[in-house]
Amino acid sequence: MDAKQIRSLRPKLKSLLKWFDDCFSRSETRGHLSTYVEGQLSDLPRKNCEPIADAVNMPPRTLQQFLSLLDWDHGLMKTKLQRLVATEHAGPHSIGIIDETGCPKKGEKTPGVQRQWCGATGKKDNCVVTVHLGYAREDFHCLLDSELFLPESWSNDRARCRAADIPDEMVHRPKTAIALELCDRARSNGVAFEWLTFDEGYGKSVGFLAALCRREQKFVAEVPVTFRGWIHRPHVTNRRRSVVGRPRKGPRLVAGSRPFLSVREHLEHSPELRDQPWQRYRVKDGEKGPMVWEVKHVWFYPNGVDDLPMPPMHLIVARSVLERDKIKFFVAEALQGTPLTVLLHVAFSRWRVERSFEDQKTELGFDHFEGRS
Q1: Beta carbons of 19 and 80 less than 8 angstroms apart
Q2: What is the pLDDT of residues 127-136, one digit of tens each?
Q3: CA gap 29, 31 in Å, rounded
Q4: Are 82 and 191 in contact (CB under 8 A)?
Q5: Closest-CA residue to 298 (of 325, 261, 326, 254)
Q6: What Rg do the C-alpha atoms of the chain give, in angstroms?
Q7: pLDDT at 245 over 60
Q8: Do residues 219 and 211 make contact, with C-beta atoms less than 8 angstroms apart?
Q9: Of 146, 207, 164, 229, the residue nearest 373 (C-alpha)
Q10: Long-range contacts of 243-249 (CB under 8 A, 24+ apart)
Q11: Model-level pTM?
């Protein structure tokens, strides 16, 4: 945005930011929020404190202290944002999108930084990773919440954490646990997701899928080609194998049951998938024209954490018409009669959160931050 556009939006922007007044204990602190946000929306090439402050003739240290030292309630700001979205953008066909992003960083001081997979560079790199929850409904989308992923190397070094002002109660948690916390927090603030969707980094965790099922949350999850399960439910028994010895404590598969296969093996060898004709679906209209995928679909029983079949889910195999080698696998927790068009719409909605990340980094300077705490 240029200065003229920001000036035209300023009344609406100030009205929006006023919604967060009670997140700050002092009036002068609230004023810094407007300065910082207008700086993020500006056409400055860098969106960290110094150029934003220089643009309005403010000492850079003032803005740096606003972000790092002054008293403002981050938790209340998230709550108010989520309640605002719940009030103004609720309705059917709402989709929650779980994803993560990495910001490349040099050095060892930025909280959570280490060599790990970085989506921004497409390789293992020195970066900070954050887990995010997005929201999409009709032509609206936004980010609702986010949390720093704290690697085990940091969590096990409490002296390093204290030097970065990371509280002792913040420890390493799997990204799936962070994602569940983000979803639970949004739901407690009135945000209702008809669907959730996420990539195979989260879809590969059957424990995560089971946790969503316990919450009665419908989802469409991309899964890796190694994701395992059965097309025909194997028999399960509680009977022990013989009359001698102690009885088994839990259920088991009946001897001689069919072994589970990966979804890729099912596509190649199971007649229900292998021999099923591909059906074409127009998934959405992209910048380069309509996106058309060929699809196969069966009822599927994922292999759970105890090596027993989970409740049945949809298994969807999607192949790009333009790139025949590009094949995606999805499992969906939904009623058996749910139309494939609906499941595909949800499955291919992740571009919304990817667009949010792109806007954050190119327009708002999300990866320009220089925080050490």
Answers
A1: yes
A2: 999 999 999 9
A3: 5
A4: yes
A5: 261
A6: 24
A7: no
A8: no
A9: 164
A10: none
A11: 0.89
